[in-house]
Amino acid sequence: MKVTKFAAAVVLYLSAAKQIEAQVDKMLSVLDKAGVDKTLQAILAGKMTRLVAFGNGSYKEINILQAIQIWIFQLSENEFKEGITEKLVALMVRLNFKSDGFKHYCRALAPPSSENYRITVAFSVDALAYFFKLLINAGVVVAEPKSHLFLFVARHFKTPGISGDRISEHSFTNKYNQTVQATAKTVRAALVRMLKLLDKEFDLA
């Protein structure tokens, strides 16, 4: 009995797989007319043309591929210029389409991560700390508690001559609390340059 059920299941799988493979050329023709990205077309075709030969797919995969083909064949020519590639990718993600090629494709589409991005400044740590102190004291920046700001600056700012390209939060805090006149002069010079630029741009001098 179990053998009979298994054999019937195999027959159903192969039948569905053959139907999918038989529709690949037609599917690619539609995708080509719709201007769908060639790489994405190749990923789909590669997945759909190896079902019978390899026979290692699942019924869930068959259902996913059938759903994708049905969606593609239902496209109208009026939709061809409406970001079909993006809509197809969204459908494939929603249906949990799985392949290494598609995984890499999606990663390439993702915007670059800003997690490790740091703002490079010409200030030393001393000057940067005093600059932020002025911003806070002048009410331009609201930082409560200040420790959160110090941690943020340490993680996201880069100054010249810092070992390992990382600002020490402890060092930044100390510089913030202890400013020397030389540092104040450096920051003042930068502020004067900015004021001159502002005056020149808006004729305020």
Note the overall shape: elongated
Please write the string of helix (H) and strand (E) elements. Answer: HHHHHHHEHHEHH
Largest sheet: 2 strands, parallel
The count of β-strands is 2
State Rg.
30 Å
Question: Can you describe this structure in just a few lines?
Answer:
With 205 residues, the protein is mostly helical. The protein has helices at 2-22, 24-33, 38-48, 51-54, 59-73, 84-94, 100-109, 125-137, 146-156, 169-177, 181-202; strands at 119-120, 157-158. It folds into two domains: 2-109, no CATH class; 119-202, no CATH class.
Describe this protein with a few key phrases:
mainly alpha, 11 helices, elongated, 205 residues
Topology readout:
Elements: H1 2-22, H2 24-33, H3 38-48, H4 51-54, H5 59-73, H6 84-94, H7 100-109, E1 119-120, H8 125-137, H9 146-156, E2 157-158, H10 169-177, H11 181-202
Parallel strand pairs: 1-2
Helix pairs in contact: 1-5, 2-3, 8-10, 8-11
